[in-house]
Every structure is written in C-alpha cells, then in structure tokens.
C-alpha cells in the first residue's frame, strides 16, 4: 500500500493472509505484485466493502480491519477491428473500460492498445464481465477530454465476456473534442 511517498509493504503469513505494519493515518492505494498469467485482481474490499480505485482509509481506532484482494481467472479476450471511414485505422488508440467504470475517474481500470497496419488489436487476459470499447485517432487526446465520460456512457461498444471466451468487435474511430 502507498500513501503519498510512504510505502507500507505486506508481511505474508503461511496461511495466505498478510499484515501491514507502520500504517499511518490517511488514504492508501493498494497495489499487488504481478500475478501469474491467467489471474487478475477482480476486487479490493476493505471491511467487506468494495473499494473503487483500490483506495482504502484504515481506521486506527478499530481493533481489527480486513483487507481482501479477490482474484479471478483472467482467461477471456477481445479481438477488435477499427475503421476510419472505409479504411482500416492504423495505429488507432483503442480503450477498453470495465462496465462498472468509476464516474469520478472514468480512466480507472482502463486498458489501452494500438491497432496494427490492418486496424486490428487484441485484449487478452480479461476477467469475465461486461466492457466498453472506444477507438480514437492516433493523435487524439481522449484521456483529458471533458467529453470522455459521456462517450464512455453513450458511444462505446458494449461487449460481454464469459470466462475463457473470445469475442470479436468492429469499431469506428470516435472523434473527440
């Protein structure tokens, strides 16, 4: 866990549980070392409640606190083809948003890639669930656009992935202001 420049590493116990020492007051962002292929962190829970953006605020006065990192199989994938007009969109930026994206930070959990010369790309090692896809021109500054939230909610292509499934999606490049 990190809090500003402060780092609070976990001490792993033989039963798989862990303990954080030296936790100061404040809000922490929870990070996990890379997991083996085929697994991904699906949820971060603090005292039983799902924590958006993996942010937790420990209560120093509490006798006991519980932090859970829920790991899911990440075996789904999405093959995406992007066109600009009637031509393949080479080097297009493709963004994959989790269906339950954070309205306060719509980039939270987003995965990005660029298309090849044929306008194609693949997202692999995905957790089963719904996602939203958008494609932008190579030079588009979509991450800082005030219209991003609206585009994610109204213009994105929705895909639904089952564990181990592979889905294909065709996208048109989205203009952004």
For this entry, give a set of tags.
four-stranded antiparallel beta sheet, 4% helix, mainly beta, 177 residues
Give structural notes.
The chain has about 180 residues and is mainly beta. Helix content is about 5%, strand content about 45%. Strands 10, 11, 14 and 17 form a four-stranded mixed sheet that branches. Strand 10 and strand 11 form a beta hairpin. The longest helix is centred in the C-terminal third of the chain and has 7 residues.
Give a short overview.
By secondary structure, the protein is mostly beta strands. It has one helix spanning 148-154; strands at residues 2-3, 6-7, 10-12, 18-20, 28-29, 39-46, 49-50, 55-56, 67-73, 76-84, 87-88, 93-98, 111-114, 120-126, 129-136, 157-161, 166-172. The chain is built from 1 helix and 17 strands.
**Share of helix among residues?**
under 10%
Ends distance: 36 Å
SSE succession: EEEEEEEEEEEEEEEHEE
Largest sheet: 4 strands, mixed
Low-confidence stretches: none
Rg estimate, integer Å: 19 Å
Number of helices: 1
Determine the mean pLDDT: 86
Secondary structural class = mainly beta
Q: Percent of residues in beta strands?
A: 35-45%
Quaternary structure state of the chains depicted: single chain
User: How would the global form be characterised?
Assistant: elongated
- According to DSSP, the number of beta strands is 17
């Amino acid at each position: 866990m990190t809090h500003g420049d402060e780092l609070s590493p976990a001490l792993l116990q033989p039963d798989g549980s862990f303990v954080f020492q030296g936790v100061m007051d404040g809000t922490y962002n929870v990070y996990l070392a890379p997991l083996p292929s085929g697994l991904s962190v699906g949820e971060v829970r603090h005292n039983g409640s799902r924590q958006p953006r993996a942010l937790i605020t420990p209560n120093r006065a509490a006798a006991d606190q519980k932090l859970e990192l829920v790991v899911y199989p990440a075996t789904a994938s999405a093959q995406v083809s992007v066109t600009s007009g009637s031509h393949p969109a080479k080097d297009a930026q493709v963004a994959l948003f989790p269906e339950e994206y954070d309205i306060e930070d719509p980039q939270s959990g987003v995965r990005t890639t660029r298309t090849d010369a044929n306008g194609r790309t693949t997202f692999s090692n995905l957790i089963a669930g719904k996602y939203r896809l958008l494609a932008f021109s190579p030079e588009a500054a979509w991450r800082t656009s005030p219209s991003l939230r609206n585009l994610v909610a109204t213009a994105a292509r929705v895909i639904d992935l089952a564990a181990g499934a592979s889905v294909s999606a065709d996208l048109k490049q989205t203009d952004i202001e």
